[in-house]
Design a protein that fits this description.
This protein has 298 residues and is an alpha/beta fold. The longest helix is centred in the middle third of the chain and has 29 residues. It is globular. The termini are far apart.
Length: 298
């Protein structure tokens, strides 16, 4: 029994790609904890989910359109603010797959995946960002993937998009911190339409969307972390970490390239690995090994 049960009563949330699968589960989970929902998707499934929330006694509206359409996204955010006063939570879930090996992938399919995942998330985040700053509160979830964090065959476009969102999250989390805007990434594993052709039925049965949505609830709570990459699937939860080894220092650049390869095991040793809190820490670490102090002007 938890004393501090997450209560989202009075919070207003937008969930993209919420007509089916993970997005639907996220929307229902948020509504079950009291949040007012804007359910976004491309088709009538969005209104079906909104109706299900209303039928259960919750508050919900639908917004049917593509996150790649900046005009639609801005109108959606404006409509939510007009009806409910503001946006407290944004869950960027909308996505597509266009899997092929890089040798056989068209540039059109590469661009489309980047447009939906990256620019779709940028559009939605941009549409709520300034109002969250003004109100001094916001919780934003971006959906990354193991394909971006560690790679998968045939998913160079999807992996590139999903890792781009990690970089987006890292900087936004820094910029939003003083306004109590917390930005995190979710790396889900769930039985969705995108997974149907990848895993066998018995494994898909263990990957229920509702289990992943528990992670979303944690990432949008009042006491949510900031700049975390939370992995979730099959009832398991892990943090993905981006660190750097202690590495080596080579003063003589004339033979540095050869020394890098010769000393690769030392360079790659993960004992005492570092987890930088921001990008400047790479420069600080590298200069310190050469005996220099790091003194940024900003």
């Amino acid at each position: 029994m938890h004393d501090g049960k997450i209560d989202l009563t009075g919070k207003v949330a937008i969930v993209t790609g919420a007509g089916v699968g993970l997005g639907k589960a996220h929307a229902l989970a948020l509504a079950a904890r009291g949040a007012t929902l804007c359910v976004n998707d491309l088709g009538e499934e969005a209104e079906n989910v909104a109706e299900a929330i209303r039928a259960a006694g919750g508050q919900a509206m639908s917004a049917i359109g593509s996150v790649t359409d900046i005009g639609f996204v801005e109108q959606m955010a404006d409509d939510v603010r007009r009806h409910h006063g503001g946006v407290d939570i944004l869950v960027n879930n909308a996505g597509i797959l266009r899997d092929k090996s890089f040798a056989n992938m068209s540039l059109e399919d590469f661009r489309l995946v980047m447009e939906v995942h990256v620019m779709g998330s940028v559009h939605c985040t941009r549409a709520v960002w300034n109002s969250m700053r003004e109100r001094g509160y916001g919780r934003i979830v971006l959906t990354t993937s193991s394909s971006g964090l560690w790679g998968n065959f045939g998913q160079s476009n999807y992996g590139a998009a999903k890792m781009a969102l990690v970089g987006f999250m890292q900087s936004l989390g820094i910029e939003g911190a003083k306004y109590d805007i917390r930005v995190n990434c979710l790396a889900p594993t769930a039985a969705t339409r995108m997974m149907e052709d990848i895993l066998p039925e018995d494994q898909l049965a263990e990957l229920r969307c509702e289990q992943v949505s528990s992670a979303v609830l944690a990432l949008v709570a009042e006491n949510a972390p900031n700049r975390a990459i939370l992995c979730a699937g099959a009832g398991s939860f892990e943090l993905a970490l981006i660190g750097m080894t202690q590495g080596i220092h080579i003063a003589d650049v004339s033979d540095a390239a050869e020394d890098i390869l010769e000393r690769w095991p030392e360079l790659a040793d993960q004992v005492s690995a570092i987890l930088p809190s921001q990008g400047f820490e790479q420069s600080r670490h590298e200069l310190a090994k050469g005996g220099f102090a790091f003194e940024p002007s900003t």
